[in-house]
Fold this sequence. Notes:
Layout: E1 2-6, E2 11-16, H1 23-35, E3 42-45, H2 49-58, E4 63-66, H3 68-79, H4 86-95, H5 104-125, E5 128-130, E6 137-139
Parallel strand pairs: 3-4
Antiparallel strand pairs: 1-2, 5-6
Amino acid sequence: MILYRDNTIKFTQLYRFSDGERYEELKEDLENLLILGVQIESITCDGNRALIKAIRKVCPQVTLQRCVIHVQRMCRIWLSSNPKSIPGQELRKIVSTLHLIQSKQELSFWLLELANWDTRHHQFVNEKTVNPITGKYWYKHKRSCTEIG
Length: 149
C-alpha cells in the first residue's frame, strides 16, 4: 500500500494498493493529488528512486526529504549493531541521535559533529585496495562511511 498523508492535519489524502513502487503509478498519484487541489509543500519519503523521479517530474518545486527513520535504519544495516572499527563506532553513535533533532540549531550541531567525524576519518573512509596486476582499485569501505565496521 502506498499512502499519501498530510502530516499537519493527520489525514490520508490518497492511497493505492500496488505490488511495487512504480514510476508511472507514483507520477499518476501526484498528478491526481494536484488535480484534486492538494497543495504539496513537502514530501518525506523512503528514498525510492521511482518516487524521487516522479516528484521531480510532477512537482519539482516541492521540498523533498528522506525519512529520518529510514536513514537510521539503513545506517544500522550498513554499520551493524556493533561496528568493529573506531570510526564505525563513532559514526553509529552520531547516527543514533539523528531522530532527537528538534530545531535548526540542533541540526546545525549534528551536522557539525558529522562533518568533524568525516574530517577525522577521511583517510580511513577513502582507503583503497589495488590489484597489483591490473592496477584497478576499489574502496575498502565501499559506501564511504556506510561499510565501516
